[in-house]
Amino acid sequence: MQNYHYTKLPPQTSHTVNRSLNYRQLMNEPINILEGTKLSSVEFVQDYIQLRFDGPSLTVNAPFEVVVQGYHYRKGASGYRDALCERIGRLVRQALTLPDQEMRLEFEDGSTLRIFLNPEDQISAEAAVLADGLNNICVW
Questions:
Q1: Which of 12, 42, 99, 127 lies at 20 to 30 Å from 119 by C-alpha?
Q2: Each residue of 70-79: pLDDT tens digit?
Q3: Beta-carbon contacts of residue 124 (< 8 Å; ≥ 6 apart)
């Protein structure tokens, strides 16, 4: 059973999004909308991060790690911010969710962002929140 839910937000008029949403794809695996997008920015906010991808954004409250050339950089470890920021401009090749285990973003350079979804590892009610840029959100 998937552990996410959808919410339709009220329309926003302050910005437009050039990327169209494949609704069937969103319903089957919401994180798939990140495939083919580039990571455009990383924002570190107190105890969470926000990742922006050519329209969609992903807020990560859960523990995570960045894997680059076999090295694992966990949140808080030396070099983890650099490893994450070096993904800016990289294309997401594959995005998937392993229910109650992890979300995984694989980049074109072979690096991976792993967001841990194990219930015992969670530090808040929402492990991650995906906003598609078209007023839809998905919460894990």
A1: 42
A2: 999 998 899 9
A3: 61, 62
